Amino acid sequence: MRKNSKGFTLVELLAIVVILALIAVIAAPNMTRQIRENEENTQNILNQKIENAAHLYAAKYYANQLVNGNTVSFTLNDLQSDGLINLKGNCEGLENKNITIDSSGYNYSLIDDDGATCYDGS
Q1: What residue segments make up the domains of the chain, in order of their start?
Q2: pTM greater than the 0.85 cutoff
Q3: What are the residues whose beta carbons fall under 8 Å from the beta carbon of 86, sequence distance 6 or more?
Q4: At residue 3, what are phi and psi to the nearest 5 degrees?
Q5: pLDDT in tens, 8-37
């Protein structure tokens, strides 16, 4: 009588599962770190876009005041109304966050207390 030799033995399947588990253990921290780095990079890019939009808006509407050394203030909603940025619709209250610009730079808060981001990068 001939033995049926089709398929894998339990030991072979167990070895494959162990190898896949080792790969997952090695890869998971690297993937987590990469995701965190990508989120930080995205936030930095969004911050740069907000800064550029704020400077354009200030130069367009408040150039004389900035030249005279005054501090000007406007909101993210003002930037959106002018078409410089696009805010997500589910971020109530953040669109009214103030941006202040003076001769030394600008200041604003893009993220609310719950960690929700209202800027979609468009």
Answers
A1: 10-107
A2: no
A3: 80, 119, 120, 122
A4: -80, 140
A5: 899 999 999 999 999 999 988 999 999 999
